[in-house]
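User: I'm writing a tutorial on reading structure tokens. Could you give me a worked example: one chain, its sequence, then its tokens, then a sentence or two explaining what the tokens reveal?
Assistant: Sure. Here is the example chain.
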Amino acid sequence: MEQKSTPLIIALFPLIVLVGLLALNVYFFGDDALSFSNQLALLSAAAVAGLIAKFRNTGFEVLLHGVNENILQAIPAILILLLIGSLSGSWLFSGIVPAMIYYGLKILSPDYFLVSSVILCAIVSVATGSSWGTIATIGVALLGIGKAMNFSEGIVAGAIISGAYFGDKMSPLSDTTNLAPAVSGATLIEHIKYMAITTIPSIILTLIIFLIIGLTNQSDYKPDQVAELEHALSSTINLSPWLFLVPVVVILMIMKRIPAVPALAVGAVLGILFGLFFQADILNTLLVNTGDANLYQLSLRALGSDFSIPSDNPILADLLSTGGMKGMLNTIWLIICAMIFGGIMEKAGFLASITKSLLTLVSGRTGLVTTTAASSIIMNATASDQYLAIVVPGKMYAKAYADQGLAPENLSRTLEDAGTVTSVLIPYNTCGAAQAGVLGVATKAYAPFAFFCIISPIITVLVSALKYKIKELKPK
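And here are its predicted structure tokens:
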């Protein structure tokens, strides 16, 4: 049976309920909102959407099918998150992350640390095509270095995410970089070529902003405190350059197009093996402190549960602790609840009504690009998934771009400039929840400093308004 068109105010009502509940949660729970309250807000909004859909004659089986489809789509992300949790424990167990922090403090200058973080994450992300992998490896170490230099963790996380998502956008190995042209009808090479027109100015502005912040942040840098931290690291853990073999292997595997799940699993196992070889003394001490009977139990604890290396230095004690797979469970719970909300909104026809209403506001090419960008951002907020933020507007606006005489590269570029990068700014989106969980920094703390992700949608609209490098359809 054909589904009746839903009036815009009805389609928006569950989203309004969700935004209201999330605001209440932030007010009452603060940074602890991710522990349980935001999950309940998503489920409550999903229930509101389901009740409205039921009154509009959408069957429960249809809604449940949408939920199943969405959760199934999130399974790879959930597996990756679990493995990232085990990787963080394994690389602490082995001394890899402490070694990254130690040598990073030796090499990186506080004045240029934020800029260096953006560039390092961008390079790794371009090479691997994975923003998640970059943030879970290099990003975690850079966050530790930044905290040791007395930078705000929100600013450091913003720099890490900016670099990682720039690389993810521009890498031909990235899934979203392949998805956007596939949906739009463009070719991969042309898509990257036209995306560079908006992406390079965005990253240049981002680097300038972080350079200014770094140069004006000198008063917070305490050399004596950093030297004390370096000494505490070297006296607590066996720091060896050989430990870097493990992250190099993981990065090479991802560059060779080996899927993230086996690559991260290999990295976690290698971390345990390197730990048994390089950190034998500290591990034997930990056996006494943890009460574990043997190294097998201690290894599993590092992979799956709370694990820490004791230190009298308060900064180091914070850096040398992790939650393993267990630490990812709240994030996974949030993603599942977000997928439930998105699945019901999609099958009820509410998402289609919102995007169709936006399409009626289109006037001219700039209006079309602006509406596409807005639709992608709204999809990130309602469907809670960056892939849907690319696919749904891509399918919906393809004909409109052709009618305006615009080549599909304009659509694919806009989808990435608005859909890919803004996903990480929404706390209950799969990307926002994942990066907040991996870095241990709340989305609201890093979002104002993820300058690349904020600037990109603005630049794509500005380029359209200036009519600069707008590719026309060739006449048949």
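What the tokens reveal: The radius of gyration is 23 Å. The first strand starts at residue 307 and ends at 308.
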